[in-house]
Amino acid sequence: YQRGLVKVTGTQAENFVPNGPAFNNTFGLYAAGREVIALSGGYNERYEAYNLETGFAVHQNGQWENYNAQQFPGSGQFPAVQDLVGAVRNPVNQKLYFASYGSGLIEWEGVSKFKIYDGSNSPLLSALPNSKGYARVPGVAADVAGNIWVTNRSYPENGSGLHLLRPDGTWQSFGLAGFAESNNLEKIIIDANGYKWMTVARIGTGSRGLVVFDEQQNQYRHLTTSSQMGNLPGSSVYALALDKDGLVWAGTDKGIAVFDEPEQIFANPNVAAVIPIINGRPLLENQIVTAIAVDGANQKWVGTETGVWLFSPDGDAVIAHFTSQNSPLLADKIMAIAVNNSTGEVFISTAAGLNSYRGTATETAGKPECALVYPNPVRPGYTGLVGISGLPNNAQVKITDITGTLVFQTQATGGTVAWDLKDLKGKRVKTGVYLAFSANQDGSQACISKIAVVE
Known about the structure:
Immunoglobulin-like, 4-stranded antiparallel sheet
């Protein structure tokens, strides 16, 4: 644990620690609702564990709170687990579940309220013979029914690498019959059809790529670089993401692939991912894509070893490219990305530490009450942007003066609009009250907000 700056007065020492995670090696990030969780464990490219017991940190309402054995040293307050690499919140009971690369699955309800699942009390398999407690769980996901799905890298060849924990505490294991790499699965996401998409670990001489599993029909499909069996640009898959339209995005060692009909993955004899094209070339051709996150406007934040890229929803246009040379990004090698879709803030884990970027794309959950304007009123001397959030997703927005004269119009990125206080001619508006009208495409969701400008 880093103690930050220490002020010594006589024999008294006082610590000053900036608000943030108590570690700088964020391996994974998870975002849900208004919270973002940073995970401090990990493993290297050879899948060797870092053996870190530094816990996790939660960002909410602009503040970080750390959870680790040093922060909570009391007996039974914090679990003795290592290498937390993934997290998911159960949508049914709101419990947090952590994937540990060495300690299994951790069910977390708070300090002193947790349970550890490993080979001693669950079907999870060990990565070491005769050591049931050493369970490597690199991936975790939750379905809409509150079932927790985990991948499990273990030593038995053809061992069950996918397990299900139900809300009632019972387990079920799934062996992918005939697939030699079933004990070598890594990351997992669940699409709108309930299909489980899993990456195959990028190690060894066996088949890599993706595996899609449907437990209802007990069938799986192995997707590779074959043009009729996946069409992945590269065999090593680093990242998976599900976008707002239900499409599956995969980041490989040679660029990006998009599965635009995941519901047909078992019905079609030939499956070929779409490769987005920019300026006549495949998107991020021959680049290692380490992370993909989707913001409230369905834009894609993509991590590589050459910085962070922001692409349009379809991946056919570059919106931004951030590197350590043109931005405060701490390093160009990206480990993970997560977006707080309530605020638009983008969290980026690099090889040298954690950054955040104040994005403008948010997501409005449910029916919007009406837009929130900030700052409001706009006082003399203010030179920043006026943010309007809580809008219907991707709404049409028009701002007029009190007489009804159109001053500004645009489309929201997700549930947010940023206005630079300039009119259609590029001139800063004068003192007065302005009205922001917003509505979705069919007009079923609409609201009017007032903006006061004082010069």
